[in-house]
């Protein structure tokens, strides 16, 4: 006898304390986990509740009653903090007072233990009626199990409930499918969430339970292979989460992931997430296949009488004919399937041809077809023949329909058979909250986005392949762009691209972040910036593809990664680089000629000796409201920290900043002009007059900006979670002949730019320009600094300034 069984069978008596102690002992037995612990906890609870029921029935004299477990408890799957779903079933003959006393003697001891309880008292007829009106109640009764009492009473109810479920399947299953879709909309896709809800999210425990209900209808059944194992892994993860947190929670929060992984014997949080994502993928895919089959069966049932009446037997047979899609591929009953004459064992291109034809037609791929290909298909020769490469590119260029087809091929291992390196990125989490998807799904989404941009490039095939491969290096240690270049070259050669195209794909993967990083973090008026990009890209054709890839990658990353502003900066950089690659010399920086408004503001600042500003509010494609702020200040120390600090105090988020010295015509003088792109964190935008008043006070010292920001930070402490890495400041003394470039990477926080400005002021350097880039919770701010004479800093001085700045930020 195992220790769990022994614990479950030890007499605990009817007292809550005895059950609670035995329950705690069971949960603390480390060797026992997973299904054995869940079943052991259920058996222990059964024994305790059976004792309670027997004693209560004897005391109250109630006969013809049964205590029934439903839901997860009915399935014998109690997690450490699961609630108890109980039904007190009775034949209706007992007096109400006696029945109420029996219920009290059952429910109150449960409540005394602190275990959550969902309970009801009904006759079989009442339970059946409630089930007919409440889908969730009906689902719970499908797993009803006797704990104690009259077994015949439950047997009759189970028979009628199952019969009702099967008879009402044409109505009930669409309702259940709608419930699953609604839950998915609310909780999201489990395998793409950094903090997933293991129960409610799509591909989670509830979806797996719903598939059991579909199977009970006898209308359709889920693909069984791997499904039970996936469900078990999700339940195991929830058990560990309950034990780590001590709470009945289903959300796998960041701060608990490492402990949950350790309790499950996994290496780290990444290993945990990958296992959870893998399980969710299996459940979600099984759900897709199952619900598609449910729809097919229901449509066939609805159409069969009508077809027979209108067309006769011959017409019904004609309606079932197959429509050719490609060689060896046909459409049948709304799916792409293999033709009767298809021979997977002789046609190694067939999996790609099936996928391409299905995606182009907007059809799902038949599960039977994919499994047949996985079992009988031949491996492609290396390098691939031209037809295989073309079919892959056709699949990638199909747009959104490609996603479901790719997942169907991947679910049966066909993708990793075709592209072995794919295994390293499959279901790999990305902890940067800017990213919406796992690495593999991000690559697919980038291809979807790229398919809409193929008309912009001369080589759409290279764009689509680069989209699929640009982050392939994230499955290996090191800089993913550098590592990815080597892997991409190998994969491109495997797929059959020639040496020249393989080299271009390697360049695209190596530099897929070059345009957006340069455009948002470097001074585009600096000839060295444009020259460096041109040297890396080398040709206008590669630049054209890289431009489209940059946009597709950003759009596939998430809403924080792309905007009208970023797009305009990248387009400006591409225009400048294209001119250089076409033979034009890098343009010398033009003098900053003021606009009419800037000249007016600068003259007013010189006349008054105080800052003046203008606010412009505009509607934008990617933002509800964008604000452009122009500030003109007579040259003096402390301008950058003062302005950035005042903006932070007014809860304005800086999205972009440009700081330049403006020489006014006719030698009127030099004015510092700061152009800001900001947005209100929440609430209304501040008035320009209030901003100007606070800026004047900040510059004259009467407003203590650092103290105010510190008070705000203390009032809103950081939430618990993963501790971000410390700030890092890097000096690039040779990037520009005009200034020294300092790049600051730090967690985004209130007043970050203010702190940077103060640290640089104390270092005795002048800021020539600043470029602010924020992605989610991380900021990458680049400042161009010069010495008091307006010259770049020597390398040693630049390193010292970077070290002081990093120390100040830490």
Helical amount among residues, as a percent range?
40-55%
Q: Give average pLDDT, whole number.
A: 87
- The SS-based structural class is alpha+beta
> What fraction of the residues are assigned to beta strands by DSSP?
5-15%
> What's the number of extended β-strand segments?
15
The number of distinct helices, counting runs of at least 4 residues, comes to 32
Principal-axis shape: globular
Query: What is the first-to-last residue Cα distance?
Result: 58 Å
Q: Write down the Rg.
A: 33 Å
- This entry's quaternary arrangement is single chain
Strand line-up in the sheet with most strands: 3-2-1-4
The major beta sheet can be summarized as:
4 strands, mixed
Low-confidence stretches: 1-12, 313-319, 620-625
